[in-house]
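Question (not urgent): is this output format expected?
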Amino acid sequence: MFMAFSQQKLMAFSQPNSYDLRLRESVFQSGRTETARQIGVPRSTIHGWTKARPRPVEMFTEKGDYIESRIRAVMSFIPKAWKLVAGD
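Got this back:
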């Protein structure tokens, strides 16, 4: 019984599978899932690949734009953090 519990617990914390990005991109663009199914990719993963939208790419015109955008993103969280600490 202890062994079975340990195995279940171990399975719950196992690392997720990783797949070649070229395969994911091919399934997304073509919609053809046969190859992915043949190598054992779960149907739910393939479904996510076919429905996914490409992530937007941030373009920066100058060298400092990226750093400034990250600073603005961090600064936007500070008021929210103070509200959480204050309990509002």
